[in-house]
Amino acid sequence: GLTETCGIFQVQPDDEVKPETVGKALPHTEVKISQDQEVMVLSPSVFTGYYNDYEATEKTFENGWLLTGDAGYFDDDGHLVIIGRKQDIIRDKEGNAFSPDFIETRLKFSLYIKEAVTFGEGRPFITALINIDQGNAGNWAEDRMIPYTTYTDLSQRPEVEQLIVEEVNRVNAQLPQPMKIKRFILLYKLLDADDEELTRTGKVRRRFVYGLYLPMIEAMYQGLDDIRVKGKVRYRDGQVGMIETTARIITVF
After folding, report:
1. 198 CB contacts (<8 Å, ≥6 apart)?
2. Domain at 90-251, CATH from 3.40.30.10, 3.30.390.50, 3.30.300.30, 3.90.1600.10
3. What are the structural domain ranges in the chain?
4. Is the entire prediction scored with pTM above 0.90?
5. Which of 58, 84, 217, 218 is paired with 185 by a 20 to 30 Å CA distance?
6. Alpha helix stretches (DSSP H) within 144-250
7. pLDDT (tens digit per residue) in 67-111
8. Which of 153, 150, 154 is nearest to 137 (CA)?
9. What's the maximum distance between 2 C-alpha atoms anywhere in the chain?
């Protein structure tokens, strides 16, 4: 809901609650998605305008419809899904809107994924660099008697790759076609604030990561099956070393 709609305009029906959505429109309320992916609302409960601010009011309405400033889409059941603020949305090569944060958050709902960074602006499809959760993925591997030594070794195990494929497929099943992840790489190291890949509060420094791992990102769009990489690794004891390995590029669909 919004202040401008005098409260909620969507609600979860009692018999079809879907936590990943904001539900369906209330009676006597119409909701639609504009061509640029903005959520628009038409309802008797929508306010008539901002007090003494004609210019702001004009920018907030289009032919009587309230422009919410949010981007979203309707799922197959008619539920509205909000993917983020319209101003934060980026577009692929075909002009389809998507939110990296929206996709990444859903990936990180998995017990086995610690971090994810998605790409696709101006590109033909969505790709991702993924960090596995060493603790949970390690326990999963040990329960199945899958040997490994380091994070790098664990992340490159075929069984772990398949585990993450299943997690990515689970997320893809909840997304519209243009937002589905097509290819990904399991990073050979954890993203680290000490390596400037994360902020001190744990947020991904997207531009820095893009520049640092650009050869790997480009390889995913070039149709390669793997890429030879060399990089710095920070071990648990704080020591830093160099590693050279082959990163496999995994195609989901």
Report:
1. 191, 192, 204, 205
2. 3.30.300.30
3. 3-86, 90-251
4. no
5. 84
6. 151-155, 158-172, 206-212, 214-221
7. 999 999 999 999 999 999 998 899 999 999 999 999 999 999 999
8. 154
9. 69
Which residue type sits at 165?
Answer: V
Model pLDDT for residues 14-29, shown as the tens digit of each residue: 989 998 899 999 999 9
Quick one: which of 52, 28, 19, 241 has its CA closest to 150? Answer: 241
DSSP letters spanning 203-218: -B-HHHHHHHTHHHHH
Cβ proximity of 234 and 216 under 8 Å = no
Q: Rounded distance, CA 130 to CA 189, Å?
A: 10
The whole-number pLDDT of residue 233 equals: 80
| CATH of 3-86 among 2.60.130.10, 2.30.38.10, 1.10.10.10, 3.40.50.300 | 2.30.38.10
CA 188 remoteness from chain centre: 20
